[in-house]
Amino acid sequence: MSLKEKMLKKNSNEGIPFMSERTRGKLDEILNQKLTIKDFAFLNKDGQDYTVFIVDEIKDSFYFGGSVITGALKDLSDEDIKEVRENGLPVEFYEGKSKNNRKYYAAKFYPDEVEDDLPF
Q: SS3 sequence, the chain?
C-alpha cells in the first residue's frame, strides 16, 4: 500500500484493519448481552483516545466505546491485549447515569462472575 493510500485511509478512520471489512454498529444495540471482545484498538480524535472494538458474536460490525470503556481497556498491558486477541474478553455493556443525570456506557467484564446487585 502506498503512502498516499495509507494516509487517505486515516482520513476516514480506516487505519485499523478490522474496521475496513465491517460497518459501524451502535453500542446501544448490544446492551445487556453477554458478548466477547475479540480485538480492539484506539483512535485519537482532537487529542483524545477512543476505543474501537469488535465482538466475536457479531462478525460484520465494529463499535466505538465511550470514555469509561476506553479507560478500562487502556489499563491493559501488552500481554493482556495479546490474551484478549487470542482468547477473547467476556463483557456485558450497560447504560449508566452520572450524578449529573448524564447517560454513559460502561461494561461488566466477566459478567458471569459478577454479582447482579452491583451499584449501577
A: CCHHHHHHHHHCCCCCHHHHCCEECCHHHCECCEEEEEEEEEEEECCEEEEEEEECCEEEEEEEECHHHHHHHHCCCHHHHHHHHHHCEEEEEEEEECCCCCEEEEEEECHHHCCCCCCC
